[in-house]
């Protein structure tokens, strides 16, 4: 069940932009799961990177944590998922500037 806080977190994460690609991490499909604990006002966020050794990975993860903490007063934890990213994970229309879709 998607809650208002889930949606608020995802929308706030649109402010986190992959500097190499120039698209936000939600458009890119890097946010794979958000689990909110309403009682504790915490969230667990699972994300992936565009490449396993993304040079901006640590900075992106830190930005996700900072943005998430502005919504969840109890804090957020960020885990890196094991899925490999591919362009089909992008939001519809997001790859148009790349000529992918």
Describe the structure.
The chain is built from two helices and three strands, in the order H-E-E-H-E. The chain is globular, with a radius of gyration of 13 Å. The protein is of the alpha+beta class and about 100 residues long.
SSE diagram, text form:
Elements: H1 4-12, E1 31-37, E2 42-47, H2 57-71, E3 75-80
Parallel strand pairs: 2-3
Antiparallel strand pairs: 1-2
Low-confidence stretches: none
The number of helices is 2
Count of discrete structural domains:
1
Q: Radius of gyration, rounded? A: 13 Å
Tell me the series of helices and strands, N- to C-terminal: HEEHE
Taking the sheet with the most strands, its summary is:
3 strands, mixed
Q: What is the CATH class?
A: Alpha Beta
CATH superfamily, please? Answer: Fe-S cluster assembly (FSCA)
Q: Into which percent range does the helicity of residues fall? A: 10-25%
Structural class by secondary-structure content: alpha+beta
CATH architecture: 2-Layer Sandwich
Concise structural overview:
With 101 residues, this protein is an alpha+beta fold. The protein has helices at 4-12, 57-71; strands at residues 31-37, 42-47, 75-80. β2 (42-47), α2 (57-71) and β3 (75-80) form a beta-alpha-beta unit.
